[in-house]
Amino acid sequence: MRNRGMLTAGxxxxxxxxxxxxxxxxxxxxxxxxxxxxxxxxxxxGIGDGVAAGVGGLALVLAGVGAAVLVRGAMDRRWWGVLGxxxxxxxMVGVGWRVLTAGVVGANIGAGMLIIFGTPVAAGLLLxxxxxxxxxxxxxxxxxxxxxxRLGGVSPxxx
Length: 159
Hints:
Elements: H1 2-25, H2 49-72, H3 80-100, H4 109-138
Helix pairs in contact: 1-2, 1-3, 3-4
Transmembrane segments: 50-71, 78-97, 109-130
Keywords: Membrane, Transmembrane, Transmembrane helix
């Protein structure tokens, strides 16, 4: 039951962060023009700002509770090497969606920059999280001396 609670708290943290960032950031349209006259890289969802803020606030509370459970619980600290990058990617996704759907006059330069630079960073963080998670789930149970903590013949704890 304890592992299931930690897993649920981790999922709440990782999924709550992008929704909180998206909801609390609000629509980033250019001021002074009606939305019908703006250009969009991607059309935003038809959700009002008040509803988005409420959903974002609820997601922020959910993510905060998940983080508190993980910090106070007996989770192996090495798993923060998996959760940390996933939280950063979630933050990038939530903010990135608002950048991609921002109403602008002319070209949305922020959307292009996000796609060019944000995609490789997010992919690298995801690859790191998956690799670290697989390693911890399969080989990371050691802690003492011997071959239990070795990866490819090189000790991760130094000489």
